[in-house]
Amino acid sequence: MSTGLCQNSSPNFSAYSDSSHIYPLIHSNLYPDTIKLKSITVSAKYPDVSYFSAYRIPKIEMEVHEERTLGEILQRVAPIYLKDYGPGNTSTITLRGTNAAQTQIYWNGIPINAAGTGQTDFSTIPVMSEDEILLLPGLVSLEKGSGGLGGSIEINNNPSWNDNNRYEAKIETGSFGYQSYGGKAAIKHKNLQTKFYTRYQSADNDFEYINNMLAEPKKEKRLGASNHQWLVGEDFYLNADSLNAIEIHLFTQSLNRDIPSPISTVQLPENEQMKLDDARIMASWRHQSKNQIRLGLKSAWTYNFMNYQNKLAAINSTYTMHQGFLIINASKYWENNTHLESEIRFQSQMARTANYADNITRNISSLWIKLNHHLGSFANLYAGMRKEIAESTSTPLLPVIGTELFPMATKNLAFYLAYAKNSRIPALNDLYWVPGGNPNLKPEISHHLESGLRFRQNLLNRISIGLQANAYSSRIKDWIAWMPDSVMISIWEPINLKHVKASGIEILIDIGCTWSKTSLNSRLSYAFNITNENEDDPQGRLQLPYTPQHIGNFSFYLVHRSFSFMYSMNYTGKRFTNYDESHFLKPYLLQDTGLDYIFSIKKLEIKLTLKINNLFNIQWENIAYQPMPGRYFHLGFTFLLNP
Amino acid sequence: MFISACSNEPENPENTSENNFSGRRGFFIINEGLFQQGNASIDFYDLDTKEVIHDVFFTANQRPLGDVAQSLNKVGNKIWIVVNNSGKIEIVKSKNFESIMTLTGFASPRYLLFHKNGKAYLSDLYKESLYVIDTLTGQTIKEISTGKSCEYLIEAGSHIFALNWSSLNDSLNNTLTIIDGLADSVVKSVILTKEPNSAAIDKNGHIWILCSGGFFFEETPALYCMNPQGEILKKFEFSGNQTYPTRLCINPSHDTLFYLNKDVYRMGIMENDLPQLPFIQSNNKNFYGLNAGNFILLSDPLDYQQNGNVYVYSRKGQLLSTFQAGMVPSGFQWNE
Q1: Fewer beta carbons below 10 Å: N end or C end of chain B?
Q2: Does A590 touch chain B (CB under 8 A)?
Q3: Residue A97 and residue A531 in contact, taking contact as beta carbons nearer than 8 Å
Q4: Which of A495, A531, A546, A577 to mutate to test the interface with B (most CBs of B within 10 A)?
């Protein structure tokens, strides 16, 4: 991938999935091939775009840990905190000190947060190594939509026109009854490409842990924590001609899980169960005219079904959500390095549940305009504005403004400074849940200020060094929190209660090098965050619960001929579990390792994988009283056919 | 397995040495904690020294109490703590909270009532029966089928009054089940108003029962006065929209009732109307727990996300002291 500013006539376009078939991204992989190894070292780690602090999840990470969920992969490489209720169970993320509803997730440009809670359960989002995953912390999330007060995450399916047809089957087994079966096919014919993928996973998750709630702490086995999930997806890409492209993406999955109780409560295995069904379809058309105008039309439908059962409490609750989207965008690039982009989005939500008084339909529309102008090769000015109109909720204009400076007149070194205002409209449960829903809620409003630097240098076409450092400060007012009703304390209702301020720094370093038939990739990330309430904080600056001040990751990949070795560690600092810092969970350091061996039989490539997770058998918890597994193993076989 | 993490440790455990509550004038505070967060605790407040001793169970036993402390009974030199969502009863020494025994096997235990002849009745949210427990061995002797989930229990004469508060499993939640405490059998059921939540006995032996009217304000809340045979003597209906009275209790001379209805209200047992004016105004506090002993004790869980406050008032309603308790303080037990 080019990293030089002058080598791409419209650098600000190229990170969009919409345009990536025109400027295809070259991704790395792990095959023991000198040419392929080279591609590992030179592949860019950051989107080639004015995304300020954006961070692309490394391809190698997704290839090695493809069986893991999006949350688990992000936790390994990105400055986020994963609130994980245990293997196969609910997990949400904390990004820059914000809550789970304040991170927006986009699938091919379509927001997929649960409309009811506003949150995303990251354990339900699978990762395919072909995906492109971008983490957009802070103000840059406004590019795709509002609501990402902490930031947003993009999952994009992209074509790979340079690859040959390939077929892949994968079998994995592991500790605690883990099994996974998957298959993929990528077929290309002239200007048409299709990618198919499917996967089935199940696990008993019956690991041992030490129950220190007992008078005599002892080992116990986790019960009632099993889960199984299957998914199917298909992507179609058609380059109708040099100026028109069509994409269709289909995805469906079904997930069943037992919900284990915290160990502080009475253990009732299989008492609580959840079933989740998701389906989504998206079709898009893009047109690029010869006079540097681009037009895009995107339409999507998403479906979510959730059933929760608690046998003892006689709860059988269902929630059905249909959402429709229509997105129209247009952009123009001028020869004087000015880029104007606009987008109109219509979204319709239809919720059906007995937990609301009526069937709910909510329409949301939004308008986005962005202007980007390069001042020679040394500076880039950026300004945007979003306006969102949601039924019965008034939202303000949301501006973003920033500048990037390139002192070396290339993109190898960039400094940036930016400001944005963002807002999040209340989720449907906040407005309509019975009892407690509050239709008078205001949207949460945030102000962000952010600055940082990016540095990337390739040496001798063999060594790549990257550094990204960000500092941010944000203020969020009218933070929505559920509180007991003033009359009837047993009923809780959401109110615009808190004013929260968050600030911190993030540092990301990656180094890659290649020599002969060996390549090495390593990356280090560290995040420091202080998040506390502006008011009602008589004791001073108290860190919000489940918001660690320190998070660090390190990973190391060594590929030599047919062997590859992986090592990674994740440090998560102390987390308070309530607002007055009276209780906390201890920090933990997790270390994983793994080994791959690849060999070929004619056109069939076979990869054997062994992974050891939680190498030092640490007892740790992400959520109080939700035990996590000690050391465990995964053994995998991958069969790849390149006819 | 390396043990590098322990669930939800207190940040600053104040008391590492053994406590001794024998002969101390004060009260225990039940800090309910948050559902599924395992942060229930018991505090002690010394009226003479004004000292607050936090988390006395953890200090004595070096383990958390559990998930949602529902109620606490002091019987002789033992204290029985019902830990609702942990499905257990912790029995500790009243002098220092050292664990004696843990009774398990319950689904969602709520309230205990100690009977004269060595047995205790236990209500359980998820059971349509009452457990009968041998107080010496801790063994469950039998279950009395009530046909409805039971909540608060009170004894009047030889009868046990079990309030049917929960509508779980479509159970009727507007009744009172009367049980013969000698035969351990149901005598009869009396229809009241939805959600009978608390009860008290006055100096005349009359039973007062407070009904909040239902989770969705389906019925008008009411206060009943009954005789030990279960006959309704008086009924007082609350006026105004969306009132939700709870926590009925009585003073030590058993002649004045107190309850919460956002504010604190006081009513003599001979009065013919409900009080119109509050005895203690909440002034934006979320009063949650109430006890009317020699002092009026009130708790405020604030936003339920941090340690709550306890307020000590004189019998005339004058605020005497305020201090911080644990997570969601909800009840009190005098150290008598």
Answers
A1: C
A2: no
A3: yes
A4: A577
